[in-house]
Amino acid sequence: MTAKERRTQKQATRAAVGALLTTALAVVLPVSAGADPERVPAAEKAPVTGPGGQYNGPEKCNPIADDGTVRALKPGECAQFGTVGQKRTEDHARNVILIIGDGMGQQEITAARNYLKGAAGRFEGLDAFTSTGAYTHHSVDRDGSFNYVTDSAASATSWTTGIKTYNGAIGVDLEQKPVENLLEKAKKAGMRTGNVSTSEIEDATPAAFVAHAFNRKCYGPQEEKNSKACQGEAFAAQYRHNGGLGSIAEQIIDARPDVTLGGGLEAFEQEVIHEGEGKSPFLPTTTTWTAGKTVLDNAKDNGFTVIRTAAELDSVTAAGQDAPVLGLFDDGNMITRYAPSKATTDGGSGRPLECEAQDTEGQPELVDMTTKAIELLDDPGSDKGFLLQVESASIDKRSHAADACGMIGEVERLDETVKAALDFAKKDGNTLVVVTADHAHSTEIIYDGQDSVAATTRLRTGEGSSQTIAYGSLPMQELADNPKASQQHNGSQLRVAAYGPGEENVIGQTDQTDLFFTVANALQINDVTTIEASVPTGKSATTYKPGTGDRNEPADPLATCYRVGDNGFVSGPGDCAQFAKEGQGLDDEKAKNVILFIGDGMGDSEITSARDYLHGANGRLPGIDALPYTGYYTTFALDPELGGPTYVTDSAASATGWATGTKTYNGGLGIRVDGTPVPNIIELAKARGLKTGNVTTAEIQDATPAAVGSHALNRKCYGPEYDKNNKTCQGEGFEKQFREYGGLGSISEQLIDTRADITLGGGAKYLEQTVQAGGDWDGHTWTKGDSVLENARSQGFTVVTSADELDAVKEADQDAPVLGIFAEGNLPRAWERTIPTVEPAVGQGVRCTENPERGDEVPTLAQMTTKALDLLRNDNGFLVQIESASVDKADHDADICGQIGEAQQLDDAIQAASDWVRESGEPTLIITTADHAHTSQITANDRATAGRTTKLVTADGDEMTVNYATAKSNDDEEALGSQTHTGAQLRVAAEGPGAANVVGQIDQTDIHYVIANALDLDTDGAGINLAGRWGATETGAPDTSTEAQETTGTPTSSSTKMWIALGFLALVILIAVTAFVTGRRRTNARG
């Protein structure tokens, strides 16, 4: 395609987008945009009723004035740590390189890593950061309502100015007044500045770094040539001939960064209407404008060095205020690395595709633009440093287009660029590098080979597996009918990572506006009026100094995690961990106790929707968000047939990961992929003499609690009566799980054998199943014919079935372990179920209500947590796992209220544990994380999606919509019970001895070693015999030989199938021969 054809196509696209934006802006821009607009009446807030918390964020983050009108929020008013920052460190940097992956949420990062590096691989740039955190991002509409789904303009304005503003705004507040940005502050301090992007340089992210505009589409000086989103009376005051600051292109020239590189030539070819001196609200300007000439010609006249090709960029040797460099390499956005792929109705079940590189027509790569910018900006002889913003823009643009290949190629570009920046920073020693995103997007990694209500694409990854990616924020039919249809952003919190002086200040839970102050404070250019932190900084302030050389080097799990071909290798403990058994080694302090919290299915989207609803967009989850160390981890499982990765895990394989340090197949519990049992964390803790506990709101036989108390070929092997179990634990190969066939027994039996000091949850009906094989296990007698529960009582367990009975318990130990069973199945959810609608959730949002079926006899997770900690306290220490299980179960049901209620249960339990640790004074490591990501997405209000949506009223009194779009259909039977897990990496947070070892990029199996190393456990499991403690007293008792353990293959293993097939063939032959011989005998007899 020629440049002219591309321009024509882009003009058509821009016109279509402009029409959409004009409609949207009727809401966000209800008043005329004059130089001093009248104050806007605030929207009427909905009443906040029912269960759940109240807003608890920064007090000044309130856009409603006392007189009921909307006021402009000031810099730092919505930052979690005010203008002063976290103060984990007060180190200063000479240079800052801020790198933005537009639309790069957790799903996009993970999907790209899977395709490019492998599930067990590492990005050389993105995954190399030594400080990692999470931050919230949202905007505020012009009527004062919080908008839970931001656009790139409002989000970029957040980190460049420290304020919250409306979607579409570039560097202006809610009253449309300009706010000084980082570039302007840096230039006033005498620093050199640069702005690099693969988008049009006038696009939202690069524009917010240099300009101030009522709308992001005010690209050039000729109003009629701009998008309709910047035309008409509401935008007249933006243009210079009407007395405004002018178009974004003009302001780029007036701001005069030393280096500006990207696309967007088309707007620079618009003619200047107003001549005279340049305009800048915060900087002196020497620009002189000539009417009738283009912006580009005016730039040349004012000393800019203009370049158009990669070769010209390579030849540039200097840039400065006398001759700034302006590189414009495309009429519009620069060409993406990979040719587009398109998600379709049946893409998930189709043949896997491979992404194909396309001709970039001589345009420079992002890494080349960045390294050249650094080269031009860095002046070792000067006492002043530089500030550089770099953006990989089309991660977002290709996600809008449901183009998985395009998105992945732009993440790859970003990673290359990050590595180059880190290489410079490590050599320089005085440069802070930060990488993050502006908002999350629509991508979701779903179970492979599966179609859903969302459009899907299936890709063949470099490691030979296939990965299915879904786009469900737009109706399938709309995507099919309109090639330019655009998927939505979503409101999930984002990863932020840093390296260099000041990097520690991104660790933990912050807001997008906090990043402004992290950068400004590091560069000592923060002159904003002081606002103190709304969060106590003392808990976050530590002596931990990342990046100082004390971190162990990552292992190479790509070489040890997978079974390759028929070599017979099966990975075991530590083989898939990013830092092997030794861990990162950042904090060698030992803990007396460890409390591991699991929010089942609680990915970043679930955390964010819960926070938004319970405490507001700028609020904090008092338990989860208070843990001071944060990192991210991968969660893939293994394919039992091929030995490679399965990109979407289930709860069994994931729990096995942290419980044993071993990857297994989906459905496997406490075993390697070949079925061999592996010691779990409770068994290791008991071997060291620690007390142990296992607490859940699920059935205690469910995957997460089962993984620390059993070893099973399938997660559904709940009880000892084979034919009463789920069909997934019946049939071919599963008999060997059961004791009458020589196995370790059902999950219920093994939980009793494990003999944790306290076990609390549901699942009574499975404990009522009858034991099929009697005998002695580790000195405890099992009686055939009695129920599991009767056997538990006879073995000394104290059984309680209500909150009052639990409260009355005074001790729990190996002589009298406590077994609390409070429901036949899962414990009832705290909040009543919501049913999402297929049509867009319009009209007034709803508030959640308490579940009337949950009575006082069922203890809350916080109550169970506090009781467990009291009972486990002892001189030697303890390990306890505590799970809020029904975040996941509600997500499967598309039940947002149920989901949020269970997230609150987890947060309350974490608060209870933190209070217990503080009061007891015991050195205790607390970790909280999830087992897998899930389906829910925060999407725009009143917009149709491919799935089903519910609109809620949050603690802010504003509306938030949540979408569920991974089921096979939107019919009740599927949509209200079969939403699926997704494959995104997950947040992990910790405090206490060893907590720093979760910071950075790790794998789920690494958590096993964070815990084991903190407790000084023998991770090799020496002395733990998983079969030899059984003494048979009846026929049919288990075979405990070593050979029996080693040959316990998965029910679907190739070798098993082969022998079954051979056996079947032999049986057929035998029957045929027998029939033939019998027939001959009968013939002979008749003869």
TrEMBL record:
Binding site for Zn(2+): D102, E391, D396, H400, D438, H439, H489
Binding-site residues for Mg(2+), renumbered to this chain: D102, D203, T205
Residue positions of the active site: S152
The name this protein goes by in its record: Alkaline phosphatase
Top-level EC class: hydrolase
Presence of keyword Calcium: no
Comment on bound cofactor: Binds 1 Mg(2+) ion.
Location of the region described as Disordered in the Swiss-Prot/TrEMBL record: 38-59, 1029-1054
InterPro entries, alphabetized: Alkaline_phosphatase, Alkaline_phosphatase_AS, Alkaline_phosphatase_core_sf
Transmembrane regions listed in the UniProt entry: 1058-1077
Family of this protein: Belongs to the alkaline phosphatase family.
CDD domains in alphabetical order: ALP (cd16012)
Cofactor field: Mg(2+); Zn(2+)
Keyword terms, alphabetized: Disulfide bond, Hydrolase, Magnesium, Membrane, Metal-binding, Phosphoprotein, Signal, Transmembrane, Transmembrane helix, Zinc
Disulfide bonds: C218-C230
Assigned EC number: 3.1.3.1
NCBIfam families registered for this protein in UniProt: PRK10518.1
Residues spanning the signal sequence: 1-35
Lineage: Bacteria, Bacillati, Actinomycetota, Actinomycetes, Mycobacteriales
Superkingdom of the source species: Bacteria
Molecular-function GO terms, alphabetical: alkaline phosphatase activity; metal ion binding
Compositional bias of kind Polar residues: 1038-1054
